Amino acid sequence: MQVSMATSAGKTGRPNEDFAGAVPGAAVLLDGAGIPGTESICSHGVTWYTHRLGGALLGRLSRDDGRDLAAILADAISETAADHRSTCDLSDPSSPQATVAIVRAHQGRLDHLLLADSFLVLDLAGDGPQVITDEREVASRRLCSAPLEGVATGTPEYDRIRESCVQAMRSRRNQPGGYWIAKDDPRAAEEAVRGSQSLDGLASLALLSNGASRIVSPYGLTDWPGVLGLLGTDGPAEVIRRVRQAEARDPVAADARVPDDATVVHCTHLPRRHSSRGHR
Length: 280
Description:
The protein is of the alpha+beta class.
């Protein structure tokens, strides 16, 4: 499997909270989340969390043992939580967390796992792209933000309602009927969107963080077939470059988003049969 990737911090002077990495036959992408200025809750920060969790995932995936991806993620979450549980308040809703996307080619099949709002795009030869994401976080945000519709920004009423919306969103995190994300509870892994399919007929695949997926929505610069075409001709960095161009043209986007960390992983030359590597 040939893997190319690109990543870009959303703001100059702030660390990139995304993480991407690969081992033979597998790739991961994490999009970190947290609230700036919460060092009293966790002194390590979101970037530390995504790098530590991503490294734990890659270490386990490198064994190429076909173990269930949810079990791999659960162990990685537990390991990462143990690394800072004694010094940080992991029970606080603002402590570091991350979306997770994993793909693995094993014994002629592609296994995938998605937790929260990153995207997996499968290039099915002759059938166009299949786009897979975990829609529950977006659905929860839309529901919790509904009271803000029609309220003028910059007013005390807006600030009051917005704070209640934030609290409502936090209350739905890692809860039935809400959404799931990697944080400190390994049980979240069992709630991930998972699937497996034959590698036959699969030409390539891509993983995109939420910041990179803006090339399709909200900016509408292309569609998902266009994303695959762009990756094939110009690579992951071009996808991010076009997102940054759109942000520069429209710094106050219609949905009031600010530039976000953006990461793309593109996998080609997918294996068609199980690796002959031995296991110990």
